[in-house]
Each structure stands twice: as structure tokens, then as C-alpha cells.
Amino acid sequence: MIPLSATLSRVRPSPTMAVTALAAELRAAGRDVIGLGAGEPDFPTPENIRAAGIRAIEDGHTRYTAADGLIELKEAVCAKFHRENGLNYTPAQVTIGSGGKQVLYNALMATLNPGDEVVIPAPYWVSYPDMVRLAGAEPVIVPTRAEDGYRLDPGALDAAITPKTRWVILNSPSNPTGAGYDRAAMRALTDVLMQHPHVWVLTDDIYERLTYDGFEFCTPAQVEPGLIDRTLTMNGVSKAYAMTGWRIGYGAGPEPLIAAIRKLQSQSTSNPCTISQWAAIEALTGPQHFIAENNRTFARRRDLVLSALRDIDGIDCPTPQGAFYVFPSIAGLIGRKTAAGRSIDTDEAFATALLEEAGVAVVFGAAFGLSPCFRVSYATSDAALKEACARITDFCAALR
């Protein structure tokens, strides 16, 4: 057997992808499984964007581009940041990756060394800590509280920063909680960061356009322009434009950082899919009306799930401001047994039993760094959500 890298032992496979794969396997084996694990809109990619991809093929745009993306797409990204966020970048300050995940990974790999620290609020997207570990650095996890809406407390942020801190990762609206930072909450964090000039900010804004109830999105460098020279602002087309499989993310930041990312990407994947880049240009520059229409659907689904879960004894669930997840606490269910006799002593045990006994796939809270909870993605049909919630209700009612 070939010996594996010691670095690989520092990380685990993505739990969210594992849950989705397991649900698919069970369905293929004939099981009736409803998957609430995938963070993927169930809407089709809009027709004009699909047409742009087809047009790119027909026009012969099927060859390599610059390693970190088309200049035309970088210009569209610059226009987006200026128009929607009041941030001014040049194409030389923009990188295009094969999904937002690659942009984040490249930034961490290009800047971290052994002994460095990265502050990450929990719950967090499952990949943040493992990407930090792959880069040889250490994640510093700062728990948040449901009673604070799962938002990072400024005092806790300040206490977590040390001379070794290289980055702070912020994600608003959040995966897995849907928590968003309004301008006042973001200002409280940026005020702390301005006191620590050696700390850089990596902001994951992938759910920027998916917000509800009048919540107004803001990004750190927009709230505090003094941070722009040490902030990487990451975004992408996957979520708002239902383009998860097209794999286009982008980031903007100081030119030396972007050059380092470009250098790394030139020796790993090189350019993202050329056809997807042309489709992403259409996404950023074409009609945007469908986003509000989709958000109304997401908001209705969110409220459907919240109403059902809050009626279950032992479950507590804050209201998300954005994204398409809810992150309920099951503290009141720990210590019970299922109808089949399984002990619910952890949120992973809860999720496993829910899948095996009720046919509902969710992701356990420990995967996101905060227990005892689980994540539900409501980016699926109303019918599937209603049936899944009914199964969760019956499953919990049978606990003893």
C-alpha cells in the first residue's frame, strides 16, 4: 500500500458530502430517503445563463484562459463589487477559481505557515478548519450561542486573537445557521479587527443574495474601508444563480495576495472551465429579477420548516436571516432512546438514527463544530420538506 502524506491525516472527508452520498446510496438500494443534507438550490440554472454557456461552446470558447480567469469575467466581478458593495477593485486584484472553495483554499495555502493560527467562529462551514490544517496552521474555534443568533461576540473575537493569528474567517449569511451580521453587528467586529493590524480578514459572502425579512447584507471592507488592504472578499455564482455544478467562484483583495493565489493556481488546476466562465459573465451582468423570486420561495420553505420543528418538544431553532439552512438545537432530546432502542447521546447518533429509522438525511452539528444540533437544508421542494418534517416529528415523538 502506498504511504500517505502525514498532512492528509490532519483532515477528514467533508461530512456534508458524505451524508449526501449516503442518502443517494440508500435510494439506489431501494430505501425511501429524503435528503436534507445538500447545500444546493433545487432551481434550474436560469435560461439566459445556460444559453451563454451553449453560445460559448458554439463560438469556440473552449480553450485555456489565463490561469486565474478571463479578463472579461474579472471586469464583471469588479463591476459587481462596485455596484452592489461599494468596493473598488481592478482586474489585477481579482482571482477566478473553480468554485468559491478553491479561492478560499488557495488563499490559505498561499499565506499560512506552521504555527500560524486562523480564528473561526463555530458553527462553521465544515471545510474551513480542515483547509487550515492542510496548510499546516491551526484553527482556533470560537463558539457562538443560539441566544446571540449564532453571531460572533466581539469580545470573544478579541480574546481569540494572538500574535500568531494570521486570518479571521467570517461567513454571513452563515452556513450552517443562516445567521447574518447587519451593519451594526459587522461594525462591532471590524472595530476589533482594526485594533489588530497583523490580522487579515477572509470573508465568505457566497450567500450574499439569499436574505429574508428585509435583512441588508454588508461585507467587512464595505463597513470599514480601513480593512480593504488586508481583506479577501470571496463570492461566487453557485448559490444565488443555481450554478453549483458550473464551479465558478471569485475573490478580490490586495494585489500581492492575488498574485500569490495566481501563482499557486497556475501549478494546480490552472484556469476554471472556460465555458463556465462565460456563463458566469452572463450571470453577473444579465437579468437579476429571478433572485428575488427564488428568495420568496426559500423564505416560505424556511418558515415551513421552522414552524414544524418548533412544535417538537426538545428542539429549539433560531430564525435564520439568510442562506437556506436552519440549525436547530436538540439539547432537549439528548439522553433519550429511539423506538428501535438506539441511544441518542450525541447529535451524530440522532442524525444516524433519523436516517436509518425515519429515512431523513440531515447533517449532525458536531460536523460544524457545535453540538448538540443538526442542520437542515430547505433547498428542496415543499412536498419533500413537508414529508421530511412529518417524519422528524414522528421520530421525535417516539423517543423515550
Mean pLDDT: 96
User: Would you tell me which CATH topology of the largest domain applies?
Assistant: Aspartate Aminotransferase, domain 2
Sketch the major β-sheet.
7 strands, mixed
Strand portion: 5-15%
What's the helical proportion of residues? 25-40%
The CATH class of the largest domain is identified as Alpha Beta
Counting H and I runs of at least 4 residues, what is the number of helices? Answer: 13
H/E element sequence = HEHHEHEHEHEHEHEEHHHEEEHEEEH
User: Superfamily at the CATH H level of the largest domain?
Assistant: Type I PLP-dependent aspartate aminotransferase-like (Major domain)
Structural class: alpha/beta
In short:
The protein is an alpha/beta fold and 400 residues long. The protein is built from 13 helices and 14 strands.
